[in-house]
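**Paired protein data**
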Amino acid sequence: MKRTVHILVLASLVVGMLAVCTACSAKRDETDEEPSIFERGTWALSSFKGRQAPYHYGFCNYRYEYNERGQIVESRESTNAVNIVSGQTLYCTWSDDGLSYECSYTLTMGNFGENSDSGTHEATFQPEYDGLSATYTARGEQIPRIWESGDRTVRYALEYRDDGTIRRKEVEGRDFADTLEVYDYDERGNLVHYERTKSGEDAPSEIRTYDIAYEGDVPKSVTVTKTFPSDDEDATDTEEDAAATTHTYELMLNTDTEGNVVSAECDGRKMASMSWAYLESPDPLSRLRIQANAASALELL
């Protein structure tokens, strides 16, 4: 009898422990949440090689290396137009909080790159997060060019949907102080329209638009229009004038199995190729910077 009671007590304890473990497990499942939209993995541009426009003489070559936090630790950028070579190589060390870096850089410029410069450069970042939107201000992110100052402030603003896809993006001051870039994405996070306005003294000096066509979620072609508005008040606005200041061309796109654009063609000729790296867990600011700078390969064309 005592043995039977002992067995029943043990059985009750086991059942109780199992119930407690099940409740704990259920509680963990309830509290476990998906990473925030600013902490999820993302594709990052690894390389770009080719022309940025079909009628350009210059060829560009970009390469980027990232650490486990998604921070760029090495970058190489160069352009070669006939015998005019310019480029920069950077090696960056980030602060512990990830809000600033110091880079050692080497610059080349001129005929066959005979002019060169080197030194160190610092940049700081001020991010702000608000629900499904985020902005960050980059101070000094532009590396100094030879004979130019790189101490520039650039502002990036991104809006997201609940599922983490980008809704809209704006970049102010990347190329020049008054440059504005606006990116619009569809409900699946696909870039469908891009417009960049470069401001002149009295009127925009260039307006560039991209309209992207998809088959499902796969980008297939892009219609690019570049307009150079006239700031001459007396200029006539004839069809001939408009044709002389507007250039339109179409790009055909090739993608990999992940849907990333890996090459672009124009008039049957390969214009550029690019490669991508997937970063599992970039820190929030690095993820913003990656998507602000090249959320799509089209932003380089």
About this structure: The helical segments are 2-31, 239-245, 284-294. Confidence is low (pLDDT under 50) at residues 1-31.
